[in-house]
Target: Aldehyde dehydrogenase family protein
Amino acid sequence: MAGQAVDSPTHFDSFNPATGEVIGRVPHSTPDQVAAAVGAAHAAQPAWAALPDAERQARLMAVADVLHEHAEALATWVTREQGKPLGGVGPDQVPGARFELHGCEAWTRVTASLPLPVDVVFEDDTRRDEMHRRPHGVIGAIAPWNWPLLIAIWQIIPSLRAGNTVVIKPSELTSIGTLEMVRLMAAALPPGVLNTVSGGGEVGGWLVEHPRVDKVMFTGSEATGIKIATAAARHLKPTTLELGGNDAAIVLPDANPRAIAMGLFWGAFLNMGQTCACAKRLYVPDSLHDAVVAELRALAQALPMGNGLQPGVALGPLQNRPQFDKVKRLVDSARAGGATIVCGGEPLPGPGLFYPVTLVTDIADGAPLVDEEQFGPVLPILRYRSVDEAVASANRLQVGLGASVWGTDTAAAHAVAQRLQAGTVWINQHGAIHPLVPFGGIKASGWGVEFGAEGLKAVTRGQVISLKK
Model:
């Protein structure tokens, strides 16, 4: 905090999910340390906001240079601590930890380049009204374990670009890589502009409740999001919440199963399905069901799974034991309910948290595997008879992060997309986010948007200056 490393009286272990080994010890922040980090951010914020806009942008471009320089070391930490394979960034390479670091740099550069103009919202002969964007002050950010560095960047960089300062708490399950990334970033910034605390949910609670935290950003579960929203509401603090998804994907009757198979597969199993906007329910017409299942099964059985530090590995472990147990419970429940396990369906032997890609058919709406967000490498595939039936099924749950529609007639797919209740609906792709395209959920998937000009505005407060002529 304030540019200095501070130790804590207690620590906790961080584990490699591929091996079960302890890979490091993480400081557990105390209430006083959380207060000190917020105090440092509060003290640094006026000078940071007062910098000329071009200088603040230049500082963030320097941060992007730091991320580029240390990308391989940080990607290795992601693989060791989160589990995703190192992979690469090209179209034919596995979207793994190097992909995550590539995204960190790209999001930083694009966001740093965005303007924050003064908008003239009304003008006539008698008056001129301008909308200015002002920083909130101190942003309290709480990052998740599934994309620990990239999502931290999504919270940090727009906040800093707008003139806020930040205190971020990484997930207690993936703290080391995020703490190391922030340490490197903070060295390129004035002291106090970017600060970290670490620990479990209670540390996040102290951060949210601190009176000098002016806005909270959180990505994670619906249950924790409700707690954060409740705490923030007591102090009338604004929040941006990106919560769970359980995204539906609908294959239309005119789709080509072979042409869409790879997109569907990674749409569902990117990061072993541990992504909020992964496809987690697949609706397929009777006429294409068997062909789609066969294409997905062939991919699932062809891609190697293992320790992501080893070359050639495409799929890694689940990140933590509770998530592993949840996936196993949901698959076992589906099997007991009469569903067909097309492939996978049993944990792999050994010390790591490996669960193979699992396709499940002969299952219907209402089954726990369909209605609960599994957040793992399991995909229930549901038959439908009419597109209206598929749309009704996709919309029936109280979530609405993303969805997708797949077919050759893009006009027909577009018409279906407009009927789906989700913050983003992709056509012939799933989860294809971009740093200039706003992203956020509706219903129980949260509120507020990130990315692009809209995401930048979300970390500011509007101020109207009205001039009488």
